[in-house]
Specification:
alpha/beta; about 45% helix
Length: about 850
């Protein structure tokens, strides 16, 4: 039940208000008082500590409403929030409602079982009946809060207002990123707006839309904001200016995207003659040739029965539980996708998480359950259908396609509610998938070695399914004729994703033409590989090793094909995803050996399990909620706290090292104690293997990640403990700049190009080379060819990037000299911002 705190300058007044409210609800609602100060001479005042203690005494998951009289009461209440953890703070709402009337009405609403937002809305409108009866204002004169954030009176009469005016600010901004507020930037916008107390409203002035809530992912997305559209953003609340500043920074920085034109596959040429027999024309969505038997894929049918329920609380809890499970599944998928397709495209699933937290959607579903007494499945589906239809009604074709994400999340929750298992695709041989649709979640889990092509009757080149298919390198033709759904499984299909065509049981002539085009394409790729397989040597003779970051066996095959000289980072987290328990020693051994076999004695650096932060695994949870997971039990801390888990992994790594060039690497080391403790466990495992007569590489190198300022500060000492360093600029940037890279409000600070981060890299390299160990870098910044001069100039020995970035990086290195690179790096270190560093190396225009 919602708790209520009464904050007043007068203790007698507060106790009287509490007594009145308690009598109205016969003591059913938890009520606390924070009033007066401990000064007999001057007892009037407020104390933040008192307010904090009062909030703590009634704090619960249902939320706490804080009512204040005036002046310092508001400041004390705001200060009290600072003593709470972020999770607790999220449950506390400061309300501008009148103290006496608000407390009484809020207590009655809470006793009736209303949620925190409904209680706030009731309290905010506490004066309406009195004001209307006395003729001061009309009922239309109050805009009651609909989301628990303070609302301003829309109109006032000549009578005095009882509450202090709540600040309202507005700003006009033009959106410049290429695709406007599509799913990923919309998710950043909503994530930012939701972190402030103020009520945010957004209007697309270009399209003259109605203003919508800024904390609703669906309402923001359906504004239809494209490049060049002007927004009017209004904030009402105590932190109105702060939230507008944060949103302005987000939009000014283009949500971390660029303004370049997105290169889509060419449009399908229109033939004057009808298609040949067996030829079908669709949309070119992902280039490439595929020739293989077909396999039909169809999402499991979800049948919903609508019925009326008796206990609305139980039904609401059922839905809440299903949504929580869905959230965990999406978080796991997000971690998997980050490894498989990269952080940028994986951000699609951030929008899925926000859909589950959309307050407008949740309020609508809850209303259906509580007022219409509908079962959770029917209530959920009705609201999801309504949201999906709002996307379909948009004029913008690109934004219309976001309905796929809505349907994807909607089906996930329904499946969980009904107790159905996920329907994963299990192929026995390489095939082409035929489907009416394929959700982004389904596509992200495809194995490119098994799925050679995709044919769908729906979708377009800009759908999230197409984007993911291109990233995975799977040829795709979408929007094809539904006749393919009637084909027998095993039917041979030819597919050309570059021109958007497919051929059913292709003739010998068609097959020959496709095979010829496939050979030409493969020849071109082979020529590119030949250059990529040459070493990266600067014009003055310095060789830089270029390795690959990988997260699966399929990745290493792509990496070698693209010219990787080794693997600089094997993210072993992929072994722990999509399962209910950790992988055993034999399973890990088989994977490590298979990857090493593909590498053919090239170096393989295996990072031990790195979970925590933005990579949680439910079955490996610490069991304790962390206010800031990035500063919590993650990386080596988690492994040292679970030594048996680490020992199992080290046994597999050591056994795989026999006959292979394998190295092991510790993540998130910040102290000498940690690296020594990890080495002690490694020594213990080595001893056990020796005693058992199990072979391993006795000279296997041991390295560590440099990801924190602490590690940089003692790099000279750490260098004496290990054989190499690998700098992880993704984490190092956020820790150096104190900016969480998953928080849109400050994510732009976490920039590896900032001189502060570059100086950390330089300091690490100097300390390492002084102790005669080599230094690599495995952050995303290394994939940017324009940054190569700076990284080489800082003295790095090895760069590890995603497989697709290897060839361009090698080419960029071959055009440089170390002398030139050092000169550029020296200037970069003296700049005052990341922007000015980029201006040094990025081409003008």
């Amino acid at each position: 039940m919602v708790g209520i705190v009464i904050v007043s300058h007068s203790k007698q007044l507060a106790l009287g208000v509490r007594e009145l409210a308690a009598q109205m609800v016969q003591g059913q609602v938890p009520l606390a008082v924070a009033a007066g100060i401990d000064d007999p001479a001057n007892p009037l005042g407020t104390d933040a500590i008192q307010v904090y203690e009062a909030i703590s005494s009634v704090l619960c998951d249902d939320g706490v409403l804080v009512l204040m009289d005036l002046g310092s009461a508001l400041m004390s209440a705001e200060m009290a929030l600072e003593f709470l953890s972020p999770e607790q703070r999220e449950k506390v709402y400061l309300c501008a409602a009148p103290l006496v009337e608000g407390a009484v009405v809020a207590a009655v609403a809470a006793a009736a079982g209303k949620d925190i937002h409904q209680v706030i809305a009731e309290a905010q409108g506490a004066l309406v009946s009195k004001a209307t009866q006395l003729g001061f204002i009309s009922r239309a004169g109050f805009n009651q809060s609909i989301d628990g954030k303070p609302a301003m009176p829309l109109s006032v009469s000549s009578q005095p207002i009882l509450n202090e005016e709540i600040p309202t600010r507005e700003i006009r901004l033009t959106v410049n990123n290429r695709l406007g507020l599509h799913a990923r930037p919309a998710a950043q916008f909503v994530g930012t707006a939701s972190r402030f107390k103020s009520q945010i409203r957004v209007q697309n002035l270009t399209r003259n839309t109605e203003a919508v809530r800024g904390d609703s992912i669906n309402q923001v997305t359906t504004l239809g904001v494209r490049q060049g559209h002007e927004l009017l953003i209004t904030a009402t609340g105590v932190d109105a200016q702060e939230v507008l500043t944060a949103l302005q920074a987000l939009i000014t920085n283009n949500f971390g995207e660029d303004n370049t034109i997105v290169e889509l596959p060419p449009a399908v040429p229109q033939e004057e003659t009808p298609p040949q027999q067996g030829e079908i024309i669709g949309i070119a969505a992902s280039p490439g040739i595929a020739i293989a038997p077909i396999v039909h894929y169809q999402s499991a049918t979800i049948a919903i029965t609508e019925y009326h329920i008796e206990n609305v609380e139980i039904e609401w809890q059922r839905l809440q539980s299903a949504m929580q499970i869905a959230k965990q599944e999406i978080q796991t998928l997000l971690s998997h996708a980050s490894i498989q397709i990269g952080d940028a495209d994986a951000a699609i699933f951030d929008a899925h998480l926000l859909f589950l937290a959309d307050p407008v959607l949740l309020e609508a579903v809850k209303k259906s359950i509580f007022e219409k007494r509908l079962n959770a499945e029917a209530a959920w589906q009705a609201v999801v259908d309504e949201v999906a239809n709002s996307y379909r009604r948009l004029e913008d074709a690109y934004l219309q396609e976001r309905v796929d994400d809505v349907v994807d999340v909607g089906r996930r929750v329904l499946r969980i509610l009904l107790g159905n298992s996920p329907s994963d695709l299990d192929l026995t041989e390489p095939s082409i998938i035929i489907a009416s649709d394929l959700t982004p979640s389904d596509t992200a889990k495809l194995d490119p070695t098994k799925v050679l092509g995709i044919c769908m009757t729906s979708g377009s080149a800009t759908s999230h399914t197409a984007i993911i298919a291109r990233t995975l390198g799977i040829p795709a033709v979408l929007g094809i004729d539904a006749q393919v759904l009637n084909l027998e499984s095993g039917t041979l299909l030819g597919l050309d994703g570059e021109i958007g065509r497919a051929w059913i049981a292709p003739t010998a002539a068609t097959l020959a033409r496709l095979e010829t085009k496939q050979r030409v394409w493969r020849t071109a790729q082979e020529e590119a590989r030949k250059k990529a397989h040459q070493p990266a040597i600067t014009r003055d003779g310095r060789q830089i090793q270029v390795f690959a970051n990988i997260g699966s066996l399929a990745d290493v095959q792509v990496a070698v094909a693209n010219g990787a000289e080794g693997v600089g980072l094997l993210r072993t987290e992929f072994l722990y995803l999509d399962r209910t328990s950790a992988p055993g020693e034999e399973e890990q051994l088989a994977v490590y050996q298979a990857i090493a076999q593909v590498l053919e004695n090239r170096p393989l650096i295996i990072r031990t399990l790195d979970v925590g932060g933005d990579k949680p695994l439910p079955y490996l949870s610490t069991g304790v909620a962390e206010a800031n997971p990035f500063l919590g039990v993650r990386g080596i801390r988690f492994c040292l706290a679970n030594p048996q888990l680490l020992k199992t992994q080290l046994r597999a790594i050591l056994r795989a090292s026999a006959g292979n060039m394998i190295k092991v690497m510790w993540p998130m080391i910040v102290t000498l104690t940690e690296v020594r403790a990890a080495k002690a466990i490694l020594t213990e495992v080595q001893r056990e293997l020796r005693e058992a007569g199990i072979a391993f590489d006795e000279k296997m190198e041991v390295g560590m990640m440099i990801e924190t300022p602490a590690a940089v500060a003692i790099a000279d000492q750490l260098a004496r403990e290990v054989d190499f360093f690998s700098i992880g600029t993704n984490d190092l940037s956020q820790y150096v700049m104190a900016g969480d890279r998953t928080n849109p409000r400050v994510a732009t600070l976490a920039d590896a190009m900032h001189p502060a981060v570059l100086r950390m890299i330089q300091q690490t390299v100097q300390a390492a080379h002084k102790e005669s160990i080599w230094v690599g870098l495995c952050g995303e910044v290394a994939a940017d060819v324009f940054v190569a001069p700076i990284l080489l100039g800082l003295g790095l020995d090895e760069l590890s990037v995603n497989p697709q970035a290897i060839a361009p990086l090698k080419q960029a290195i071959s055009h440089l000299t170390i002398t030139e690179a050092q000169a550029i790096a020296s200037v970069a270190l003296q700049q005052d911002s990341a922007t000015s560093v980029r201006e040094l190396v990025y081409p003008i225009g």
